Automatic annotation (TrEMBL):
Required co-factors: Mg(2+)
InterPro entries named in the record: Enolase-like_C_sf, Enolase-like_N, Enolase_C-like, Mandel_Rmase/mucon_lact_enz_CS, Mandelate_racemase_C, Mandelate_racemase_N_dom, RHMD-like
Example of a GO MF term: magnesium ion binding
GO annotation, biological process: amino acid catabolic process; carbohydrate catabolic process
Enzyme class: lyase
E.C. numbers: 4.2.1.90
Keywords, ordered alphabetically: Lyase, Magnesium, Metal-binding
Domain Mandelate racemase/muconate lactonizing enzyme C-terminal, first and last residues per copy: 173-278
Record Pfam families: MR_MLE_C (PF13378), MR_MLE_N (PF02746)
Gene for this chain: rhmD_2
Organism: Maioricimonas rarisocia
Lyase listed as a keyword: yes
Full protein name: L-rhamnonate dehydratase
């Protein structure tokens, strides 16, 4: 059949029976396949957080896109892509002939079929980012069909709570101090600071920023540092990274993230061998095959797959177990949405040695999209949702506010 042309329409309030976490009566299914009949591409705008790149990001920019898969039995599954809506829509137009009518309760088989069938036009990049969101939505559907949380379907729960780290950008010392105080006030007991102006001036200023952070939050809060080596034309090499890591060790930094460009495998191998603090990276990699040399060569101490672009929960589960088999820590990267965070929480529950999840803060796409907000407990821990699928419910009116138009493909 020919691909259905996308139609742009104004968002509507979804009836409760069609809502993302509504579980229809399954007594009549009797093992029948549940088919995918529609996908909605939902670009998020109006509250985009600056990502730290030199050009900055305005709130109206579209960096994140949700996808919603609908089935012939009334189930709706939601996924998240770290890619703009127009790019996701282009990829979905390519993938829709393979996706329409497919089983909604075989996530790994369906997403792997999309991947294998689009190599000549994808093999990473935008197509893989779109497959990532589709895969997350498929797992959400699978969980709802089985009335089980995704974590249980991924193999079982090793924990019911996990520590989130508040993810923020570096700033000048005075505003940085105020931001850190605000993050601690919100209940975070771990904070990651990243990107500009760290690594962009001189060593003395870098140390001033780190010292300011440690003095502000005290010794009881975990601190991580992200150099942002995936910024375009990153100028620093292994010597800078090694010397900077020595400075960070003096302040009890938990890990040093992306100190080198993301393609410098040899540099990471050497740095990880000699660094006095653990080295983290991997957020830009897509597909499990791209992670293999990093794992087999122990290029990092902490691997950071991003399930909203590396292939979804199916790929991330495989990556996490490969890393575990090589005694490499896994912490999800998540400059994210509520759906992406929920996916990170589900797979972190199913990974034996998980310790943290990234929590972009403040971020309306996390804090204002769900009917029930994420809440930190008195120990700075997040409860991992235990409801069906991803365990969260999107608020239709709030989604409409951040998604003024959707691109729809349907049978």
């Amino acid at each position: 059949m020919d691909a259905i042309e996308p139609v742009v329409f104004s968002p509507r309030v979804v009836k409760p029976a069609q809502h993302a976490t509504s579980i229809p009566d399954r007594s009549h299914w009797k093992g029948q396949r549940v088919h995918i009949t529609k996908i909605e591409v939902c670009p998020l705008t109006g509250a985009t957080v600056d990502g730290g790149w030199p050009q900055g990001h305005e709130p109206q920019e579209n960096l994140h896109t949700l996808v919603q898969l609908h089935t012939d039995e009334g189930l709706v599954g939601c996924g998240s892509c770290f890619t703009s809506g127009r790019l996701v829509a282009g990829a979905v137009e390519l993938l829709w002939p393979l996706l329409k009518g497919a089983s909604a309760v075989q996530p790994e088989r369906v997403s792997e079929t999309l991947r294998q069938s689009s190599f000549w036009q994808g093999r990473g990049g935008t197509v893989e980012h779109a497959i990532s969101g589709i895969d997350i939505a498929l797992w959400d559907l699978m969980g709802k069909a089985c009335n089980q949380p995704v974590s249980r379907l991924l193999g079982g729960d090793y924990r019911s709570t996990i520590r989130p780290y508040g993810s923020i950008l570096f700033d000048e010392p005075d505003p940085l101090r105020k931001t850190l105080e605000d993050v601690v006030e919100r209940g975070f007991r771990a904070i990651k600071l990243g990107w500009r102006p760290f690594g962009r001036r001189d060593r003395r200023f870098d140390e001033l920023l780190v010292r300011t952070a440690r003095e502000t939050v005290g010794d009881s809060v975990d601190l991580m540092v992200d150099a942002g080596g995936s910024e375009q034309f990153w100028p620093h090499g292994t010597n800078w990274a090694r010397n900077t890591a020595s400075m960070l060790a003096n302040y009890g930094i938990v890990w040093f993230e992306e100190p080198l460009p993301p393609d410098d495998l040899a540099g990471y191998i050497e740095l990880t061998r000699v660094s006095p603090v653990p080295i983290a990276g991997g957020e830009v990699l897509t597909r499990r095959q791209a992670f293999l040399p990093w794992i087999e060569n122990r290029a990092v101490d902490i691997l950071q797959p991003d399930c909203t672009k590396n292939g979804g929960l199916s790929e991330t589960r495989r990556i996490a177990w490969l890393a575990q088999d090589h005694n490499i820590q896994v912490v999800p990267h998540g400059w994210n949405t509520a759906v992406g965070l929920a996916a990170d929480l589900q797979y972190s529950a199913a990974v034996p040695v998980a310790r943290y999840v990234e929590y972009l803060t403040p971020c309306a796409y996390i804090d204002e999209l769900t009917t029930e907000p994420f809440v930190l407990d008195g120990n700075g821990e997040l409860q991992i949702p235990s409801g069906p699928g991803l365990g969260i419910e999107l608020d239709p009116e709030k989604l409409n506010r951040f998604c003024p138009e959707r691109i729809v493909f349907e049978v």
